[in-house]
């Protein structure tokens, strides 16, 4: 009887320990899952700005860029980005604007897939937006594709829609300036009606508070404009301004090579 009682107690203790061992393992797995969830990188607005400007500075001054690391940053940022928030939308557009610039040198199928996913996600939010800063960032992103995209003609066709939409939303003159830059890329600059419009908007380059990125694009666009209209002195003046803004940058070097070949565009 005593042995039976003792064996019964031991059996129940073993079952108890087995139950708690399983429970412990389940609990441990849950803790690991929760830890992994919270261990993912969460970027603050300042983190994003610092990362993008750091990589932009490296790329635009001819330094090596860790593309895989930047792509990981983009993927993480896009997954956690609240696209309903205008500030977040502006930042993700700026981040991919830089990535688009990088494609000029490093285009690959994986990059196209990433860009297609990005454009598919953000387009509905941009389309509904009435924030001129969002529209400007989206148009600037599209503009960055002109020099490398296989569909650059469709990009050039789409851009006026966004510039004209912004002309209705703001009156600073920024949309008019970038529309003039579009004209430089899209039409025959020797047509007198466009020459007067492009020259009229030129003063806005110095009168507007532009991002360094946008100022750089203005210098390059007006450099091409003056080369096309055979004012080579002014064309090289703008090219030198772009070079001073980002020394050793690829885009100024590419245009200078094209100029020597008699080609006044990308």
Question: What would you say about this model in short?
Answer:
Helix content is 79%, strand content 0%.
Please tell me about this protein's structure:
The protein is an all-alpha fold. It is globular. Residues 1-6 and 19-40 have low confidence and may be disordered. The relative contact order is 0.07. It has 13 helices and no strands. The longest helix is centred in the first third of the chain and has 38 residues, at 2-39.
Considering DSSP H and I runs of 4 or more, what fraction of the residues is helical?
over 70%
Low-pLDDT residue spans: 1-6, 19-40
Q: What is the straight-line distance between the termini?
A: 97 Å
Share of residues in strands = under 5%
Average residue pLDDT: 85
Supply the helix-strand structural class.
mainly alpha
- The total of helices stands at 13
Total E-strand runs: 0
Shape: globular
Provide the fold topology.
Blueprint: H1 2-39, H2 45-60, H3 67-80, H4 86-106, H5 109-128, H6 132-144, H7 152-169, H8 174-186, H9 192-201, H10 204-207, H11 212-228, H12 232-245, H13 250-260
Supply database-style keywords.
266 residues, mainly alpha, disordered N terminus
